# Entry
Amino acid sequence: MKELSLNILDVAKNSVKAGAKNVEIAITETDDTLTISISDDGCGMTPEFLQNVTDPFCTTRTTRPVGLGIPLLKLEAEQTGGGLKISSRHISDHPDDHGTVTTAEFKKNHIDMTPLGDVCGSVITLIQGSPDIDFLFTHTGPGVSVRLDTKELREVLGDEVPLDNAEVLMWITENLKEQYAGA
Amino acid sequence: MKSLAELAAIREKMKNRVILREGQGDIRVVVGMATCGIAAGARPVLSAFVEGVANEGLSDKVTVTQTGCIGICQYEPVVEVFEAGKEKVTYVKMTADKAKEVIEKHLKGGSPVVEYTIGNNQ
# Structure
């Protein structure tokens, strides 16, 4: 992937496919690390599936939606000296508390660091594609403090206006850009 | 700063329009957004369709949605256009610029941009 933001979009789509109602995307930076964490309350993965999830060739046809997304993210993290961790609680073992947390840590000053890219574009794309899911997006670190919670937007919009309404999407885009600009 | 008050204003504005949209939207634009599509550049293609459809006032007629892997990863970004009573049109190796052309000529003008369809790119 050319940008880590595209990995975020790709991996968060796994949460959507897992039937999540809430997806949390957190980017946390320090002076030398960048951590991407994607958590969801979807159906989760069985321990057997979890073991193989980073192996692109271990996916069977029914598990094909995982495919190359996770291996790519893992590669991009490891090539900077960072790494990938996934923990998951499958719905059959944890009926009331299931979901998946994917965390990728990057050493952001490493020469092989993939640029973060257009995170706003990915957040917008996720909301456009799944207007009924609640996304909480945060990006914090030195000089950055961005937060978007679709639950709060939904309260203002009520039931009549969906989050994938074009004007709403434009509002979100502008809002995120202004937050990044420090307005 | 984009305020929540502006968001509430959008809600007010939309109130009257929502009813009008029922039963319409006879063209469906579907963008492949699996790992293959995303890696090939589908995100800007999708935004071009979402923004273009809104800016051209086509929202009542056209809906833009995302889907998973369509199965022809080597042709990504792939965009399918479904229209009631017409054959599906599959656009391949799309870009944001090609998307703008498709909006203008196909979605507005009614004639598919044959040059970008899968039949012309094999």
Q: What stands out?
A: The helical segments of chain A are 4-17, 47-52, 69-78, 119-129, 150-157, 166-181.
